[in-house]
Amino acid sequence: MNRRERLLATIRGESVDRPPVSFYELNGLDEDPHDPDPYNIYNHNTWLPLIELTREKTDRIVMRNVPYHLSYDPLQELSRIDIRTDPDGQSFTRTTIPSGKHTLTSLTRRDLDVNTTWTVEHLLKNIDDINAFLELPIPSTTGILDLTGVLETEAILGDTGIVMIDTPDPLCEAAQLFNMDVYTIIALTEPALFHQLLDHFAAILFSKTEAVAKELPGRLWRLYGPEYASPPYLPPHLFWEYVVAYDRVMVDMIQEYGGFARVHCHGKIKRILDGIIETGCIGLDPIEPPPQGDVELSFVRENYGEKLVLFGNLEASDIENLPTRQFHQKVHQALDQGTFGQGRGFVLLPSACPYGRILSPLALANYECMIEAIENF
Could you give the domains of the chain? Predict the structure, then answer.
């Protein structure tokens, strides 16, 4: 089987020659070692061997968001964006949104040697901010899709992999506007108000999801955000209220047009696995082992494997820190647990990837260990 065939057969629940292996965010396409952008960590020479390994040996799952240009987007019209860069290379982006007599502000930061964006100040800080946000003009739910990124990526990949359409769910859109402590308090103590916020984002996401699913049928999707309602952040009953009730609608739309929905949920998932099943999804990642998670891959395979393709369950921290001999044992344990007995399918996958400018020799060796194990499986 070629790599594309192997991935498609896996997500359909069909037999394969071996389990696929993916390096998650790393896909050998988006990491450009020749891009001189000072914020591009992948132009450091330590990354080149891993980029080449990813391109040549992994079953490539390339995540793509589908731009959806709303017919009317008041946030875009009202937002003021100011960017400044300090002498040490830190870049700050200030967003200011007026709402009546109220002003909403947020601040993010980029560092030269870390491939992430830090939120220094969140947009919503209290109930007054939520009400001010909800009083903004209502955006349209209709818009124009830009399918170029997906179609061009599929053409480049050929038989080496597939595109996975990447989308937040309503909970993600709402929760990321708060600092975590404020979010959990609001979600616990103000459910009616929090539902208004979820409904605001759901209206747009439902419209977009149906439009994308119709225009790009048969693709794998990733829905991210459910972990915001996983223990210990919120009690399990709120997972059903804030995740299942909304994500089930999105999953139904995706699968109505032949797509395959995979739920992304870090952390402790044992008490919410039934809720994940109730969304109707066909896949789950990254199924983190204890102590980061609270359930072994073997338990999920035995109890939910006939309904779910399991993507996991290697910790990114182990890739960077665990001696290769010990990491080798973890890789083989994941392969054994993810493929035993009857099940829909398994993809060997880490929970994330390193995001520092310099990739250590140990991390590279552990990635090579994953490829060696899968090729000898």
Answer: 3-73+139-375 (3.20.20.210), 74-122 (no CATH)
